[in-house]
């Protein structure tokens, strides 16, 4: 993805979030230089816990067709997750555009509530796992939608209206997109680890490859290592 495209997506996402009465934390407005300076002084947690802006096209170069906008607002760390004490939760704001696929995947550790915070309908396609935890074309799964058990046949879709949610556990394979329009999504989960905890059905990447045609408006979480540790 070109950096100019990413900058525009960030601006559009901020406007869409505000349109639905939501607000991002103050560090969302930091310039790259300000973020680097603060991470090196009093805001190291932003880098260590990978808080902030995130855009992916899953390495396919077709963001409008397959991609996702995310902003991680809070997150524990893996040592806390593994010890079972401390900050064991994470929260994200996401935007799934109309017909923009987030491809089929599951997680090794993460349990997540996916919440339609506003906009159009969120469509979630579901499959279960085989006994080894692999994608199973012939297995459905049972999930909780706002506390109500739903048994979903393999490949069936949940259609979440604004305000509705689903709890997904490891082994619940899922893909999702905006149905009929763009959707503002909330994710409340156990500790988030986008580096190792996402298992995709197809061999695709989690992060975009960026072409630096212009300077960044804001850094993405995938920029942090280069800008903070090598800059």
From TrEMBL:
Give the E.C. number(s).
5.3.1.15
Which key words tag this protein in UniProt?
Answer: Carbohydrate metabolism, Isomerase, Manganese, Metal-binding
Question: Which of the seven top EC classes does this enzyme belong to?
Answer: isomerase
Cofactors, names only: Mn(2+)
Query: Could you tell me the superkingdom of the organism this chain comes from?
Result: Bacteria
Q: Which CDD domains does its entry note?
A: cupin_EcSI (cd20309)
Q: Where does the signal peptide begin and end?
A: none
What Pfam families does the entry give?
Lyx_isomer (PF07385)
Reaction it catalyzes: D-lyxose = D-xylulose
Alphabetized GO MF terms: D-lyxose ketol-isomerase activity; metal ion binding
Q: Could you say which protein family the record assigns here?
A: Belongs to the D-lyxose ketol-isomerase family.
Q: What is this protein called?
A: D-lyxose ketol-isomerase
Its source organism is Pontivivens nitratireducens
